[in-house]
Amino acid sequence: MSSISAALTQTSKEFSQALASKTSSGDNMDKEDFLMLLVTQFQYQDPLNPMEDQEFVAQMAQFSSLEQLMNLNTSMNGLTTATENQQMTNATSYIGKQVSVSGNKIGKVTAADGSTSISTFRYAFGDNVREGILSVMDGNGNTVYTESLGGKTAGTTFEFTWNGLNDKGQIAADGTYSVSLAAYNSSGEAVLSDQVVDATVTSVVKSDNTVYLGLDGGQTMELANVRQVSQLTQSQATQNQATQNQSTQNQSNSTNTQAQQTLTAGSADETEASAETSDNA
After folding, report:
1. pLDDT, mean of residues 29-53
2. How confident is the model at residue 15 (pLDDT cuts 50, 70, 90)?
3. I need a labelling partner for 216 at 20 to 30 A (CA). Which of 15, 25, 192, 280 fits?
4. What is the pLDDT of residues 116-157, one digit of tens each?
5. DSSP-derived pairing of the beta strands 143-149 and 157-160
6. How many CB atoms lie within 10 A of CB 39?
7. Residue 219 pLDDT level (bands cut at 50, 70, 90)
8. Cα 138–141–159 angle (5° rounding)?
9. CA-CA distances (angstroms) from residue 206 to 104, 126, 209?
10. Percent of the chain with pLDDT over 90
11. Structure pTM?
12. For residues 170 and 168, what is the distance between their CA atoms, to the nearest angstrom?
């Protein structure tokens, strides 16, 4: 009897040490640990006090449930991975198409030929607007362009295409910008708006198990935020090119105007210097 007690004590001690080592390492008990515990109990049980049938059945039921849960978890992980890969594959069909995405991020990109592409921003208010301000902010939250909004009717969709110039008439740098709306009704209360961005999909990116669409403005949007997908027609492509050309022309005119102002200022300085020379003479 003493040898049995000694064996049980030794086994209990060894199992406790193994369990403590596994717990300290941050691991949880798995089905192999549970099976080792069950076999150890079979091997070193007291012959005069064997396990009761009810306890044995309960342990077997726990072991079966644990096995099923682990298999289910493995299957779910595999299904999740397969779904994400399928979503990534499906998203590639959006490349070259125009999408309307919920959000306020627009992008500005200048091509090698000097043409500029800027995303189109559309918005609609939930209440009639008496006045408001539309602001374009850079990635650091600095306001680069503002525009006053007059009266706007609720439910009507309005379109804003930025010309790429800041409030000083200077060409803004390429990058991602955000559009902010501050609008008020006749009672002076703030009015909420629904905002979407229209752009052409150029790439598909997967990050942190989330699929993003790369747009022609240089920004990325979540695939889940896509509201509408449409094929870019020839007329739309021509219109987009005309818009880009007009934006480029506006930038060129602004640059020429600044150069002309500088030249005029220089001529005025020369005239004044000549007058001073004549007076001295």
Report:
1. 65
2. low
3. 192
4. 889 999 999 999 999 999 999 998 999 999 999 989 999 999
5. unpaired
6. 10
7. confident
8. 55
9. 21, 34, 6
10. 28
11. 0.56
12. 5
Listed by start position, the domains of the chain span 2-76, 94-257
Q: Give the N- to C-terminal CA distance of the chain in Å, as an integer.
A: 132
Query: What's the CATH architecture for 94-257?
Result: Sandwich (2.60)
3-class SS string, the chain: CHHHHHHHHHHHHHHHHHHHHHHHCCCCCCHHHHHHHHHHHHHHCCCCCCCCHHHHHHHHHHHHHHHHHHHHHHHHHHHHHHHHHHHHHHHHHHCCEEEEEECCEEEEEECCCCCEEECEEEEEECCCECEEEEEEECCCCCEEEEEEECCECCCCEEEECCCCECCCCCECCCEEEEEEEEEECCCCCECCEEEEEEEEEEEEEEECCEEEEEECCCCEEEHHHEEEEEECCHHHHHHHHHHHHHHHHHHHHHHHHHHHHHHHHHHHHHHHHHHHHHHHC
